[in-house]
Amino acid sequence: MPKTRKDLFDCLDALGISHSTTEHEPVFTVAESQGLRDQIPGGHTKNLFLKDKKGSYFLVTLEENAEVNLKSIHTLIGGSGRVSFGKPEALMEKLGVTPGSVTIFCAINDLAHDVTIVIDAPLLDNDIINAHPLSNVATTSIGREDLMRFLSHTGHEPLVLKVST
Questions:
Q1: In which domain, by residue range, is 53 found?
Q2: Structural domains in the chain (count)
């Protein structure tokens, strides 16, 4: 069974990581979440669940307005040939969430370490990073260094690269 939001918060609390969460209506796109910007300071994320030609998976986390060239990103992230979006079934299997709820916090569900986590370097210019807590009905704010500590705890050492154009 995939971890729940409570499991995520329990993990953060056990690590002594400060976090705050704002509840809101479900948001499925960056455009739908724009209205939350005044309420929640910090860098807001968007996430791409990608698969390369050899079946390797990547979770790319960027600032919400960043753009990516999907035709060439594989050369930056170490993919074998061009990437495409991973199917919803693979998303649930690998990261334990449904489309619209993809988040860097999904690393907690990747127990097999099947997914390479990639963070667009400019996102880390923000002291606070905002992401869904495994569902798209809330946004959780966490410090940049604490996010990296959480990822390390899950066994993921993210690739921090400039992938945005």
A1: 5-161
A2: 1
